[in-house]
Amino acid sequence: MELKELIKKIKGLEVIGKDDIQIADVKKNSKDIKPRDLFVAINGLNMDGHNFIKDAISKGAKCIVCEKDNDIKNDDVTFVITKCSKETYSKVCSNFFDNPSSKLKLIGITGTNGKTSSSNLLHQMFSLNNIKSGLISTNEIIINSNKFQTNLTTPDSYDLNFYLNKMVSEDVRFCFMEVSSHSIDQRRIYGLKFDLAIFTNITHDHLNYHKTFKNYLNVKKKFFDDLDKDSISLINLDDKNANYVVQNTISKVCRLSLNKDADYRLKIIENSFMGLIIKVEDQLINTQLIGKFNAYNLLTVFSASKLLNLDSKKIFLGLSMLKNPEGRFDVIHINKIVGIVDYAHSPDALLNVLETISEIKNKENSIITVVGCGGGRDKEKRFKMGKIASKLSNRVIFTSDNPRNEDPEIIIDDMVLGVDEKDKNKIMNIVDRKEAIIEASKIVKPNDILLIAGKGHENYQIIGSKKVKFNDKNILKETLKMAV
Predict the structure, then answer these.
(1) d(CA 2, CA 216)
(2) Which of 106, 136, 382, 461 is deepest in the core (most CB within 10 A)?
């Protein structure tokens, strides 16, 4: 593609050199540069791409996009000066793949909790109705029936547009995508056309990156600020920050709620380990999902499906057939014990899961919880998660999650600091996560509930810089079969 096509309609650029040169590919890592590539110099968290411009040119880059003029002179290389390399990179990636987000219906879901479940459930809903759909989520990327692995909740701009373009080529009509706060802040989604943007909720998380809750909230808000007037915003009115995140959007705003007057409502009729019975538009629906937080996910699916013009009868039938994504309140019944694996790794998510279990369990049955916190992440939430787990469980084992380069014993000590004095007799510390699950399986009795929280679908632990094979659900199944 010619450079002038790649930078077409991108405002505020200064081109130094020829704009009719052919560009083979777009790269932001100088190590990946091949002859005739375009290199975008981005000032990132750990490195400044501007320091690698000479390296990129030596490997054959024909165009450099950067934020500042420099003293590098090369008549064979075109320089494009921009105010924001991150935004220009995202727009160039969109142009490189022929702006695929404008050729399908793109639905973005953001929030602290519920992103993965809502996006997966929406993809299920449309797939059940034989509508060609795509999914970009924490667990995986799905294009029709083909699955691809991903390491980020929201991929890099290049990968995003690559997969969206692949969806367009395979006649996908709807793509449901998780939108993380990191991807908004790093402008990975800049320039994408969203038909529908969904806000689930916002609670304490990712403050190691955003530093303050206000920063975190304003990053979420930025997603809605950037929407155009043809987009629709769908917000959870029961979150106290919902109206704030859309106060400056020019998109059409719709609201959902379990508790307030809103465009879309849902009532919980019954909540048990067999699933929710809900009432929507005077229609009673038996569902396979459990808990109040899943009622919000179901209401999100219902509301979004209506806004995307899916037939009501098809929506009602679909709601009854939806299944939890792997690792999200994943229930296992073995030897009269209820085992639950859940991805809850924030205070609010853990609170939701434990409150749900408390609401539907019998009074005489106990909750045993195995939980840890990740290393190299928000340290403030450790205190809160320790407090919540010990307060709402009968027994708790604090253990490792993904310790990364931190000492797991120090992480556990941080969690113990949140435990009230009256709850300290409930807790036990076992650093090895497998040993913790085994010990919990020895404690649990028939009809008790054993919750393994924090890692959900993940099939690894990050210890140091290595990923070690590990899966909570598989280990829980093995140990429960031997229990009792």
Answers:
(1) 38
(2) 136
Kindly provide the residue ranges of all beta strands, DSSP E only, lying in 206-304, ordered along the sequence: 232-236, 252-257, 264-265, 267-272, 275-280, 283-286
pLDDT tens column, 356-383:
999 999 999 999 999 999 998 889 899 9
Range scoring the smallest mean pLDDT among 66-70, 131-135, 251-255, 465-469: 66-70
Q: Is 53 helix (H, G, I), strand (E, B) or coil?
A: helix
Residue type, 439: E
Beta bridge partners of 275: 272
Distance, C-alpha 114 to centroid of its chain? 8
| Dihedrals phi, psi of 285, to nearest 5 degrees | -135, 125
CA triple 294-304-202, angle to 5 deg: 55
Per-residue model confidence as pLDDT tens digits over 274-297? 899 999 999 999 999 999 999 999
Enter the DSSP assignment of 202: -
Helices and strands (H, E) in the chain, number of each type: 16, 25
Half-sphere exposure of 476 (CA within 13 A, CB side): 28
Q: Where are the alpha helices (DSSP H) in 278-396?
A: 292-307, 312-321, 347-360, 380-392
Give the count of beta carbons closer than 10 Å to the beta carbon of residue 371. Answer: 28
At 188, the amino acid letter reads R
For residue 111, CA distances in Å to 102, 153, 197, 437 come to 24, 12, 11, 30
3-class DSSP assignment, residue 54: helix
CB 78 within 8 A of CB 18: yes
* pTM exceeds 0.85 for this model: yes
Residues 6+ apart with CB under 8 A from 296: 114, 200, 201, 236, 238, 258
Rounded Cα distance between 102 and 172, Å, is 12
Nearest to 164 by CA among 199, 135, 129: 135
Closest by alpha carbon to 193, among 137, 141, 233, 231?
Answer: 231
| Per-residue pLDDT, 208 | 65
Chain mean pLDDT for the chain: 94
